[in-house]
Amino acid sequence: MMQSLAFHVSVLRKDFSNYCGEKLGEMGLTPGLLYFVTYVARHPGCSPKELARALKMDNGHTARSITKLAEGGFLVQEPNPKDRRAHVLKLTPKGEEAARKSRELFYRWDEEVTAVLTPEQREQLMALMAALSASRGGNALTIPGEGKDSQT
């Protein structure tokens, strides 16, 4: 009997969370907050509303996550130069370091998980996963660690 895609995605997500959990904890991050840091690293100067929309989070959850990241020294909210009533988000040096380390974690986990595949299978898997993700609106967030040029 074939198991569902949801089952396999759940297994891999749990494995990724476990893999990253300890390393992220050492930095003061959780797997959930990692995606906020990742997005701001790729989109410096984004608004909280843009961040919430891109990550498909509600505004309240996003605001609480921004507060945790700001209190942890990972990002700052600055007045938007185009609209002083709004804010933009930027990573601090600590946030930049966390983003760099997260790229390494993504890359290492990808390498470990796909080590059982041939290079052709890995490329095919990544193309299929990208297509599925994009079909569900997942193309707004580019994750560090994906793609051939991701080691930089």
Structure description:
The longest helix is centred in the N-terminal third of the chain and has 23 residues, at 5-27. The model is unreliable at 140-152 (pLDDT under 50). A hairpin with a 2-residue loop joins β1 (75-80) and β2 (83-91). The protein has a single domain (5-140), classed as Arc Repressor Mutant, subunit A (Orthogonal Bundle), CATH 1.10.10. It contains 6 helices and 2 strands. The chain has helices at 5-27, 31-42, 48-55, 59-71, 93-113, 119-135, and strands spanning 75-80, 83-91. The chain is globular. It has 152 residues and is mainly α. The protein starts with a helix and ends in a 17-residue tail after the last helix. It comes from Pseudoflavonifractor intestinihominis. Keywords: DNA-binding, Transcription, Transcription regulation. Pfam families: MarR_2.
Give the helices and strands, then pairings.
Layout (H helix, E strand, L loop, with lengths): L4 H23 L3 H12 L5 H8 L3 H13 L3 E6 L2 E9 L1 H21 L5 H17 L17
Antiparallel strand pairs: 1-2
Helix pairs in contact: 1-5, 2-5, 3-4
